[in-house]
Design brief:
The complex is a heterodimer of chains A (526) and B (349).
Chain A (H helix, E strand, L loop, with lengths): L5 H4 L23 E6 L14 H10 L4 E3 L5 E3 L2 E8 L2 E6 L13 H11 L12 E8 L2 E6 L6 H5 L30 H4 L7 E7 L3 E6 L14 E6 L3 H9 L5 E3 L6 H6 L3 E16 L10 H10 L2 H8 L4 E3 L21 H10 L7 E7 L6 H13 L4 E7 L1 H9 L5 E6 L6 H8 L20 H10 L5 H18 L3 E13 L2 E2 L16 E2 L2
Parallel strand pairs in A: 1-10, 1-11, 14-15, 14-16
Antiparallel strand pairs in A: 2-3, 4-5, 5-7, 6-7, 8-9, 9-10, 11-17, 12-16, 12-17, 13-17, 18-19
Helix pairs in contact in A: 8-10, 14-15
Chain B lengths: L1 H24 L7 H5 L6 H10 L6 H12 L14 H36 L4 H15 L2 H14 L11 H10 L15 E4 L2 E3 L4 H34 L2 H9 L3 H39 L4 H10 L3 H29 L11
Antiparallel strand pairs in B: 1-2
Helix pairs in contact in B: 1-13, 5-6, 5-9, 5-11, 5-13, 6-9, 7-9, 7-11, 9-11, 11-12, 11-13, 12-13
The chains are: A alpha+beta (526), B mainly alpha (349).
């Protein structure tokens, strides 16, 4: 077995040098090391460079948000201890006292203001931070966030505000570049240096090989049960290898667990599988611009009646998916409990007959083959199911690198897409997937169905300025119901999330539907 | 000699030029690099800006001319993903691949020559037949399958107990069929020895060597049987030749005939095939490195394709082309040493 103490001692020379003190002395007790393998490592240390799962997972290690989601999609205070709505457009946050950054600088309101301003400059984040007009430091530990219009989702956005060390990122590098610049395709100070308030600091990083983290000695949250001193993150892209690495004991924790290996992992007595219904909806869009028949709601309904979501979730996904009849997963305000999958082939045939397509027609379908879990197989299953209502599907599956170009061109009559709302809110789902496409405003950017219902769009817009959460939920649920009745798309399922770890790694309490395990609170039993 | 090398150098340049044109021409089919760089909710206008910034909107010839002008000065562009010059990225990944290839070559050379010669000398012995049938299996199983089987057996372990465990013989048989596992299943480990530059080696510590075992065995699983069969066939032919009969008649010891006179002539075609196969091995490293998460060029290349990292893909292909030309040149040189009657081009015949 590898002697874990030698991990740091044998750091590779080519590693990125960070300004932080690298080796902490080993005090009482053996240091606890967590060796983990994800399918990819973070593309950058700059948490504003890309809005992606990988970067958010990193953000929760090296930084802390103002508030964060709990397991049941509620808010939990982190760097903000309290918040109140002053008026329709203003929210006041009280910040935690006695928090320091990895560099030793004190965390104050000015860091929050600086971070929000930087977020508004980031290509990836500016869209979701658009509703925010300004942020102002009232005193050392109070911040006011103003929105352009009444905006109900300020707290949702606060989960994305991971204050950065403004002092550390101020100034210029030796090359004369500003330290706070956000560079997508190049080298920047922030992409190689990091200072946050989070439980871990990065001590070395070799892109694509490994990232090593060490617990921050002065972490503010002394009540956290977390006892992991060191984390070694290795990206293992190949599914089978990632599982083997866990089963052979080379790593302690892996994510995601490929569905084909779920049973194998569950059967192994030395490892534990943790699963949870996820929030990423997988759906098919029926392009009304390309196929005239799809303009008839009866045809769209028939397609929905023809697809057996339960069978896909049960057999193809081996039970690790939740069949869906709408976009919003449980826990979202817009989730409408009254909607359920409506598989009924006879009814589908009837509807086709009514619409005058008893003999069916031919359509083309495209799906990625390495983006979502079992994506190509799901598309095949749907194509087979549609053949029962005499619809002849010409299916083409592509690797994701090529698929999105085709998707942007709306290259097939039916296209598959998976979507996770960055704001963890239903309105985001509607804005991107079902609103009338408008290149000017970016609405309906991923609406490959070209479905357009201005009345519903109006309702979503109203919901977006409604600050009474209960009222707003009612409005969003009404939209879900209308979309269901109109069969605007074919919802399939929400992908389950799966993690696996050795028995002594207590994952269950720290995982959540957003798929950002709070590793700062992770307990590894000795 | 010099003229020969210069000629080969020209070959290398032509090969690299052709590869760069081809890989540039197919880049539009490699997917959209922008998609890999930005989050899902980034509006089209931002994407268009980034595309313009990277020069992806320019016509093919303009893009190629820009690339070629920089490339002749040794600048092959920046990897989109690593944000570093592609040559740096490749140099950093090269040592891992070379170590894997060296370890595999050692396995092949050390095993194929004695086994091949043995099978030729004693073609009818039971051991020879065993080697021959196993080698057929080895050739037929794809590399990644071999790799996954090796991981299951030697890294994870197999618990196979069809025999009654309460009897002594049953326990013994179960034990013989089951494995403990414990070999490292991925990566290069942490106990590397720094040699120079970007080269960290697995060869200088016991722990480092354990990480090499499974990947190099699976990489060797295709080539080793091929070489055993090749050496056996060549050796059989050579043993029939007149000069071997003459040497035997002259009373030279069998050992000397086999290992000095016959083997030398056996090796000629083996070297040719070996040189070509060395290039093929680079291709197989892509599979092996992917399964074992070996941080070499093969894995890097596969990931670059998934990320549509076009500059890195182009540079990798050009460098592999260069490696092919270099190995073939070396093969020709060695050929001349082993068989002085072979003339290198450029020398008067």
């Amino acid at each position: 077995m590898i002697d874990k103490k030698t991990l740091l001692a044998s750091l590779l020379g080519a590693s990125v040098v960070l300004p932080l003190p690298a080796l902490a002395q080993e005090d009482a007790g053996d240091p606890v090391t967590l060796r983990m393998a994800y399918d990819a490592d973070p593309v950058s240390l700059d948490i504003h460079e890309q809005l992606s799962g990988g970067i958010l997972q990193l953000s929760h290690l090296t930084h802390d948000p103002l508030v964060r989601w709990t397991k049941d999609v509620k808010f939990e205070p982190r760097l903000a201890t309290d918040w109140e709505r002053i008026d329709d457009t203003t929210m006041r946050f009280t910040l935690r006292d006695g928090v320091t950054f990895h560099t030793g600088n004190d965390f104050t309101a000015k860091d929050v203001v600086w971070t929000i301003e930087r977020l508004k400059r980031s290509a990836d984040f500016k869209a979701i931070f658009d509703p925010i007009a300004s942020a102002k430091a009232i005193d050392e530990h109070t911040v006011e966030i103003k929105t352009h219009k009444p905006y109900p989702l300020v707290l949702n956005l606060a989960t994305y505000i991971f204050p950065m060390d403004s002092e550390y990122y101020t100034g210029e590098t030796e090359d004369g570049d500003p330290k706070d610049e956000i560079v997508k395709n190049g080298d920047s100070f922030a992409s190689r240096h990091s200072s946050g308030t989070g439980p871990y600091e990065v001590v070395s990083r070799q892109q694509g090989v490994k990232v090593e983290f060490e617990r921050f000695d002065d972490y503010w949250d002394q009540d956290s049960p977390g006892n992991v001193d060191r984390i070694v993150l290795t990206p293992i892209g190949e599914n089978a290898t990632r599982v083997s690495a866990l089963l052979s004991g080379d790593v302690d924790f892996i994510a995601p667990v490929p569905p084909n290996d779920l049973e194998r992992v569950e059967a192994d007595q030395n490892v534990e599988l943790t699963t949870m219904s996820g929030t990423r909806i997988i759906l098919m869009q029926l392009n009304q611009k390309r196929v005239e028949a799809f303009q008839d709601p009866r045809v769209r309904q028939a397609f929905n009646y023809a697809v057996n979501q339960e069978a896909i979730a049960d057999r193809l996904m081996k039970g690790f998916a939740t069949p869906a009849a709408q976009l919003s997963p449980k826990g979202y305000d817009g989730h409408n409990d009254s909607l359920s999958p409506r598989y009924d082939v006879e009814k589908a045939k009837e509807l086709m007959k009514e619409a005058g397509y008893e003999d069916g027609f031919s359509v083309s379908m495209m799906a990625p083959n390495n983006r979502y879990v079992n994506d190509a197989k799901i598309a095949q299953a749907v194509a087979t199911m549609l053949s029962r209502i005499n619809v002849d599907v010409d299916l083409k599956t592509l690797p994701k690198a090529q698929y999105w170009g085709e998707f942007d061109d709306r290259a097939a009559d039916i296209m598959m897409i998976g979507w996770h709302a960055d704001t963890e809110d239903s309105a985001n789902l509607f804005q991107y997937l079902t609103e009338c496409p408008d290149p000017e405003t970016g609405a309906g950017q991923y609406n490959a169905a070209n479905y357009c219902n201005p009345a519903l769009d109006e309702k979503v817009a109203q919901a977006n300025v409604e600050t009474d959460r209960a009222k707003r939920a009612e409005m969003l649920q009404a939209v879900e119901k209308a979309l269901y009745e109109d069969a605007a798309f074919m919802p399939l399922h929400w992908q389950d999330l799966a993690w696996a770890s050795k028995n002594n790694v207590k994952l269950e309490p720290v995982v959540n539907v957003m798929n950002f395990p709070y590793l700062g609170d992770l307990v590894v039993e000795q | 000699m010099i003229a020969f090398l210069i000629k080969r150098l020209m070959h290398a340049l032509v090969v690299m030029f052709v590869i760069s044109v081809i890989s540039f021409a197919i880049q539009s089919n490699l997917g959209d690099p922008i998609q890999q760089m930005v989050g899902q909710s980034v509006p089209e206008s931002e994407r268009a800006e980034l595309r313009e910034e990277l020069g992806l909107n320019d016509p093919f010839l303009v893009q190629y001319a820009r690339f070629a002008a920089n490339a002749v000065q040794g600048d092959f562009g920046y990897s989109y993903f690593f944000n570093e010059p592609t040559t740096d990225v490749i140099l950093r990944h090269l040592p891992a691949t070379l170590e894997l290839v060296i370890a595999t070559t050692l396995i092949i050379v050390l095993l194929s020559v004695p086994i091949g010669v043995y099978c030729a000398i004693r073609p009818r012995s039971a051991l020879s037949r065993l080697f021959m049938s196993v080698s057929i299996v080895g050739i037929s199983i794809p590399v990644f399958l071999t790799a996954i089987m090796l991981i299951q057996i030697f890294a994870i372990g197999v618990d196979f107990s069809p025999f009654p465990a309460d009897t002594g013989w049953g326990q013994w048989l179960n034990g013989a069929l089951s494995t403990e596992g414990g070999m490292p299943s991925y990566g290069r480990g942490n106990d590397l020895t720094h040699l120079f530059g970007t080269w960290d080696s697995n060869f200088f510590s016991l722990e480092g060597l354990t990480y090499l075992v499974l990947p190099s065995l699976s990489l060797a699983s295709i080539m080793l049987p091929l070489f055993i069969r090749l050496i056996r066939a060549e050796m059989l032919e050579v043993l029939q030749s007149e000069y071997v009969k003459f040497a035997t008649a002259k009373g030279i010891s069998r050992k000397r005939i086999y290992f000095v006179h016959a083997l030398k002539n056996t090796m000629l075609p083996v070297i040719t095939v070996g040189g070509v196969q060395l290039g093929t091995m680079v291709a197989y490293t892509i599979l092996t490195e992917t399964v074992f998460q070996w941080p070499g060029m093969g894995l890097m290349f596969l990931e670059a394709i998934q990320r549509s990292d076009i500059p890195l893909i182009v540079t990798y292909l050009m460098i592999v082309g260069l490696i092919f030309v270099i190995t073939n040149t070396l093969v020709d040189l060695i050929y001349g040493l082993v068989n002085p009657t072979v003339k290198l081009t450029g020398k008067p015949a």
